Amino acid sequence: MTGSGGVTGPAAANDPADGNGPAAAGQAAQVEGWLRDLGLEPVEQAEREGVHSWDVLLDGRRRKRVRLTLILDPGLALVGWVHYAPPLSDNFRKTYRQLLRWNDELPFAKFAVSEDERPALTAELPAAGLERDGLGLLIARLLAICDLLYPESKVWVDRIKLPRGTLVEAVPSPPAGTRLLERYATQLGELGQAAVTPEARQEGPR
Fold this sequence. Notes:
- The chain is α+β, with helices and mostly antiparallel strands and about 210 residues long.
- The protein is about 35% helix and about 20% strand.
- The protein has seven helices and eight strands; from the N terminus they run ββααββββαββαααα.
- The strands form two sheets. Strands 3-4-5-6-8-7 form a six-stranded antiparallel beta sheet.
- A hairpin with a 3-residue loop joins β5 and β6.
- The N terminus and C terminus are likely disordered.
């Protein structure tokens, strides 16, 4: 039933777009279950005004300690967000051109610069029809891109530090990331292969 205020009654209660409704909570619980199925253990999670987030820490084949945040806005989209590098100083302004070039070269993911000048790598899936393998492939694709571009960007990405108070020894190096890359190797295609070929990319500008 609808009125001037929009959908009301049972239909509204089951609308995933309502971040506080049961359908939205069910979708968040589904994502948590899929992460477990994929062998991923969040190091941090939160919920605010119906928007859910999970942080996972993954090792790729080349790049280690990739912190990836999954943000679910029920009824809209799930976004994968990688803090790709520290804020860029004046010495790294040419990196902006590099990010634009990578945006042209790499489908299904985009680089951007946040308000605090941090390069970020993102990919997005619509919430409608979201399923486990779509989520797994999104994570694997972002990790494969981090591996692929590591030789070109290691001079700045290696400046990323773990959150304050975190001991490196306390954060294990789980094989979950490489298992994901292997699991979705077929779907990743050339992207997955290029990420493990040493001569695939030349080291970028310093």
